[in-house]
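User: Show me an example of a complex going from sequences to structure tokens.

Assistant: Sure. Here are the input components:
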Amino acid sequence: MKTPRKPETRRTEGLRTHGRSARVVEKVLNATAAELGRSGYAALRIDDVAARSGVNKTTIYRRWPTKIDLVSATLRAQTYPPEVADTGTLRGDLLEHFAHLVTMLGTTTGRGVVRTLQAERTDPEVERMKRELRAEQRARRCQLLTRGIARGELAAGVDVDLLAELLAAPLVARLMHSVEDLDRVFLERAIDVILAGAATTVARAPQRGAVAVAGVGSRAPKVSSKKRRTRAP
Amino acid sequence: MKTPRKPETRRTEGLRTHGRSARVVEKVLNATAAELGRSGYAALRIDDVAARSGVNKTTIYRRWPTKIDLVSATLRAQTYPPEVADTGTLRGDLLEHFAHLVTMLGTTTGRGVVRTLQAERTDPEVERMKRELRAEQRARRCQLLTRGIARGELAAGVDVDLLAELLAAPLVARLMHSVEDLDRVFLERAIDVILAGAATTVARAPQRGAVAVAGVGSRAPKVSSKKRRTRAP
DNA sequence: TGTTGTGGCAACTCGCTGTTGCCATAATAA
DNA sequence: TTATTATGGCAACAGCGAGTTGCCACAACA
């Protein structure tokens, strides 16, 4: 694993981004996603990507000098699910949101993305992309929750950030173990418990059992926080 | 990455498990845990373990033929927190349980364990250990919940398996991102929301907002599944 | 004090990442 | 169409880290 230098690009003037080149990029990126889904990040072999894409290994290295670069570009090239439609209820929106996500994650490229995200701390660039993806998904959930507040389904004082995180947690946690176990029934039940908890705690009306209940309101501290040469990606 | 065979062990008859050998095993396992915490699984180098432990690389390979074997043995050698004391309330028990866990995970070896568990699908043996660890922790949580039911803090119909999973999920999910962010306040608030949700949903008394609530009781389908050689570790 | 299990040392093999030089050809400009 | 040049294919190579091997030294036991 020789450390690659930042070599002067071959490029001297105009570069070609159409025709053959574009086709090569597409084929390689697709092949990488597929191989990631099959083998995961650690076991990904550039030779396999080359074979699957029908593009020579050298060509791949010329465009993406390291494995990380290639994977990073592949993640970047993924298109993520569009905005979720308004189903009329918060519960419906959330269900749809997560169902959409689960479907995505079930595809070959989806599995590739998951396995890459699972992969150990790799390099700052990939870490940054992970954070971006998480932030994006989280923002989407916050949006749904805010809509729920507007509808009166949730009290205004609810900590949206916390709720968004709690709602996603069961999915994330299961993802770590086995993507296969991610069924809708489970997600539905998880959502129901958490939404009920949110409704109750903010209403400060603990039911029967002597469960001590601290607030979920906005009083407590918030939870949220917040290269190299390539020819022509 | 040559695939190692399962060679005939050097051993012919009696083996030595005391004195020098025992010291070697201890030093190597400690060094491995430390290196795992520092570099993670993927970047772990046997040479580094050898250097840190002061034991020769060859010796390490003789005992643990592959990197996986070494890491696997290291995980196995970890001692996990003892049973949680009874604090008198379910909330207190859970809080203590998770606080204990967080403390553990903060140590060098703890970080090593986490990073190994995070690591991509490695080999069946490590996967098995992951499952075992998870099952063990989950059982502990179920135990606490059952105690809570006995105390009358939770309705008898509650789905203990589901609850245990939901309670652990926020911690697991955060663990994936950054161990540092795992503060007690967060865990406390998460626990409170989920416990409140459990109390409410089982009581079938949806609050104000039109949050539709499916049961958490025992009516819905259950979630749970259950279902080399080494010289002398 | 002999026997043997075990560790140290050094020099291997092997697979995979990443390189390099040369030649072939597709994309562009004239 | 033709000249020009960016880009891809090919093959051989360098480097690193995992895993081996043979030989010798020594510590644990009898």
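The lines above are the inputs; the final block is the predicted structure for all four components together. DSSP finds nine helices and no strands in chain A.
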